[in-house]
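Exercise 4. Each item below gives a protein and its sequence. For each, produce the structure-token representation.

Item: Protocadherin beta-16-like protein (Labeo rohita).
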Amino acid sequence: MVPKAAQARSLVSKVIAVDADSGQNSWLSYHIIKATDPGLFTIGVHSGEIRTQRDISESDSMKQNLIVSVRDNGQPSLSATCALYLLISDNLAEVPELKDMSRDESSSKLTFYLIIALVSVSTFFLTFIIIILAVRFCRRRKPRLLFDGAVAIPSAYLPPNYAEVEGAGTLRSTYNYDAYLTTGSRTSDFKFVRSYNEGTLTSDLTLKKTQSAVEDLEGLDANDSFQAR
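Answer:
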């Protein structure tokens, strides 16, 4: 604790370090590498005594933090650091506030790490949601594109004299035929329209019944009618 009425060159504290080496290697030097107010305190290079460089003023912060480095004279040189927390006050009741300095630093670091972790998790979660939405959109759009690209096939026109004939014989598949009866002629034309499966015959074959076959059929019909009488 440093009194508020402390003047320049007042002894505040002293850092003591010991080196296990002997001779010149055991010589130690002290340096302040970080301070809340760099112009307020100084340290003896070989003694390690911390003194004020000027008088304490009302504008100086009550809490002062010093980080001191101690180096030996070896080759290579080794060093160690220590932290000093000083309180500028004349009242001993204010001494417990010195503990809050370390707590403030640790809490600030913890807050910084928490912010980084929160940002990282939020970014990862947002990226994951965007990927899921993109996949669902692509899956919904693909069937729609296939439907839009479908070709509408008009229904087949059936003539008035159309008759559907199904037959299964020596052919390997069943065929549908169009039977067209022409007026003024005794010849009936049977035309292949389509086949359900591929066969050995083309779908544009036309079968015609000869005139003699038609007459034979008529003769059979006449005999049947005569016997019936």
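Check: The chain has three domains: 11-89, 112-140, 164-228.
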